[in-house]
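[09:14] KT: can someone run the structure on this one? pasting the chain below
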Amino acid sequence: MEKEHKTSHTPPEEVAQDGAKRGRRTSSREKNRSQDDTKRDREQSEWEEKIIQVRRVTKVVKGGKKLSFRAVVAVGNSKGQVGIGIGKASEVIMAIQKGVADARKSLITVPLIGATLPHEIVGKQGSSRVLLKPAAKGTGVIAGGASRAVLELAGIGDVLSKSLGSRSPLNVARATINGLSELRTFEQSARLRGITVQQMLN
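[09:31] RB: done, structure tokens below
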């Protein structure tokens, strides 16, 4: 005689309900994760980063030389805010991350008239001088090297620039930031002088 084995079978309706509950739980978790990811992506997408220079530097310490990397990074949102930062670390990636964090701490707001500058100005840093001039619509960014990276991240579409002094990438970038930080609109200049815009233009 064969022995009968008792097996407990769950009805298919209960199995379907359990599966539906699990599916609901996973879907809600996935939705929350996707929402968090999209928020982070939006925050990161607003800011763009450009590496201006990466150099290997040495520091003489007791017992020999210590090698590290220095990264000069520019950060901007193409809406009038831009900054540059410097990061030093034993690895290139860490140096770039430190440079991005430093750049976000030193952001400046650039006053724009359309896609160009309100007036001509010369930025200075050390022995570097950068001439910035407003340009007509459709001219584009006439610049090179570090100055071009800073101007594009600031959201300037039409500008003429010329490096007049030292061509060190770090000093050129800082000179460009110096020039952009000293720009003033007509309203700001009139307010500083205590007159109206019409009186200043006349």
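[09:33] KT: thanks! Residues 27 and 33 are 10 Å apart (CA to CA).
[09:34] RB: yep, looked fine to me
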